[in-house]
Amino acid sequence: MSRPQSLSRAQARRIALAAQGFLDPPHEPPTMRTLARTVERTGVLQVDSVNVLARAHLMPLYSRMGAYDPALLARAASGRRQRRLVEYWAHVQAFMPVELWPAMAHRRQHYREGGGKWLQAPPDEQVQRVLTEVAVRGPSTARDLDDGLPRSKEHWGWNWSDARRSLDWLYMVGDLAIVGRNAQFEIVYDIPERVLPDAVLAAPELTVEEQHLTLVRRAARSHGVATVGCLADYYRMLVAPTAAAVETMVESGELEPVTIEGWARPAYLHRDARRPRAVAARALLSPFDPVVWRRERAEQLFDFHYRIEIYTPPDKRVHGYYVLPFLLRDELVARVDLKADRPTGRLLVKGAYAEDGAPADTAAHLAAELRRMAGWLGLGEVVVEGRGDLAGELAGELAGDPAAEERSAGPAR
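^ that's the sequence the OP posted. Answer follows.
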């Protein structure tokens, strides 16, 4: 048996970024075709309620597509016949392509059988009452169904009513699906027959092994090169069924075993993965971006130690509340703590930090990217506060002529 080919860390990094869409040529302006191409790369868009900058599911699209109209995503995740995306517990709460619905049947059955310690089935009578109510009245939020009684404050401070618990359980087991979210970002539920396209509902039933294989195939394309642990994490699968699917894909030639410089565990290269000599990316990445959401992988690929500090007490934070890594070419070269101050129309850079070995043009490129992001968010000014070793140089770049700054920084994606 021949020895697995060896990849340098830089090669693996570029393969991973290409798989995530950072090599795709930009469309001006981005269209639904651009969005479909991007979601094909990412395979999932994590949803999170934090809105200090922009909602988590909006950011990975921006990082890859540039300044796009969020109405594109709203269209892709609405309607029934034309729906492209639906929310489910994919990575965690996330938008996923509707065609993955059949591949999540094992997960829905797992929750129905009592799996998931955090998900407790409400009383049957209550569940049936809520399901019947939604079936009759149509798209509904928990607030729509709440009986008005005081709610208990538990589970990290969220308010959970009986209606909300029942709706969440029905959604997790597949008796309800998510239509969308209202202006308050509340989930709107309905029966699957009024949410999902007919072709998805009528899709042939997959065995559990076929479901696992479908998800691992998706994860492998989105990663380009990955360990079994990376692949399992992408759709939050167990390691054993992931390893079995990987073995099947190795036997079929879809995956090739490889070793990667500095990685202790074996990795697997997708046969269709692009292997670019360079990646000319420039992007701010959400804390929930697939490139960095598995912190161990971010350290292995980029030598970038990253922890989200939203739940850390303010006096114990190292870099800030909502910190975005800055991708320049094929390296994570800086991080910035950002806040959209919508009442004043300003993008606040509350902290800016360069990574060890950051190139000399980091501040210029970051300034150009911050201006572009501010424009996308409808904010008229970028204001740099004093924290961080990059703050002074960044403020100087932003104080200059934007056109000259953009020319010196080079083309943006």
